[in-house]
Amino acid sequence: MRHPRHHAVLLPFVLLFGACKESDEESARALVDEGFDITIDLANVICDCWEEFGDNSQADCRDDFVYLPSEQRCAKDAYLSDAAAATIYLECRNALMDEMVACLNERLVCTDASSPDECFNDFDIGSRECIQPPQSILRDLDNCYD
Question: Among 123, 117, 64, which residue's Cα sits nearest to residue 97?
Answer without folding.
Answer: 123
